[in-house]
Design brief:
With 267 residues, the chain is α/β, with parallel strands linked by helices.
Length: 267
């Protein structure tokens, strides 16, 4: 059990990149941090920071594994729906999947290394993250998962007027990590880093972004039968639009995407 008001135990809120605008459109990340700390959290950490770190890791993985025109690489490590579908239904392709843990899991591991005996609550748009946090080997990294809808209901119940709060600003992440929230963000971020670490690569990164079950099942079927596409970096996201289209979001996809892009560009 997590007790936010227990001073003997630090509890951190790790918020998904897609949280921008989800509680109220005009609420800043600094005001959100203030509200969470009023509830008893030690601090709020952007999971986008760990997406930044994993971007670098995946860029090196791509550089090492994709060396010919026939090679390809499957990502995204942040979407458990995509990963589980490949693992269960396309085991022959799973070897091409990035071995990276998700930014959510990375956030828990980093925070618990820095603050032993602390607790971490992930806040995101996805019910599948609740299952991911309970998987063997990952079940000690995140202690609890809340959705954006659940968080909004908590704020409403506590009658916290977030728009009236002062801002506790901290800058954790870059553009790359923050745009993981929407379709194409992972591809754009990894390609940017690949171009920096291996500017003389013969085989360039050619991305294919697929979101939603129908689209990515079609791509996986092609890879299974043909084993070759014009693209060599396939980004799969379980929800239309990416995480901004998750089942437990509070605003529509186009608006959420625009807010994420704007927040990323201001990094």
């Amino acid at each position: 059990m997590i007790q936010l008001k227990d001073d003997s135990e630090k509890v951190f809120a790790a918020v998904a990149p897609s949280i921008v605008g989800q509680i109220k459109e005009k609420v800043s990340m600094g005001q959100l941090r203030t509200a969470l700390m009023m509830m008893g959290f030690e601090d709020m950490v952007e999971v986008a920071l760990f997406a930044d770190i994993l971007t670098i890791k995946e860029a090196y993985e791509f550089d090492n594994l994709v060396t010919t025109e026939e090679d390809f690489f499957l990502t995204s490590c942040c979407c458990p729906v995509w990963i589980n579908l490949v693992r269960k239904n396309y085991p022959g392709l799973f070897d091409y999947m990035s071995p990276s843990i998700s930014p959510m899991i990375a956030s828990g591991r980093f925070l618990k290394r820095l603050y032993p005996d602390s607790k971490v609550v992930f806040i995101g748009p996805c019910t599948a993250k609740k299952s991911e946090a309970k998987q063997p080997g990952l079940d000690k990294d995140i202690d609890f998962v809340l959705t954006f809808q659940e968080l909004k209901n908590i704020f409403d119940s506590l009658e916290i007027d977030i728009e009236a709060l002062h801002e506790k600003e901290k800058y954790h992440a870059s553009f790359a990590g923050r745009v993981y929230a929407r379709t194409g963000g992972v591809s754009l971020s990894v390609k940017t880093v690949v171009n920096r670490i291996a500017p003389n690569r013969v085989v360039s990164l050619k991305a294919k972004k697929v979101d939603g079950a129908k689209k990515y099942i079609n791509i996986l079927d092609k890879l299974k039968t043909e084993n070759f596409l014009k693209s060599n970096f396939i980004e799969g996201m379980g929800c239309d639009g990416g995480c901004v289209g998750g089942p437990k979001t509070n605003i529509e996809i186009e608006n959420a995407t625009n807010l994420v892009n704007e927040f990323g560009e201001n990094s």
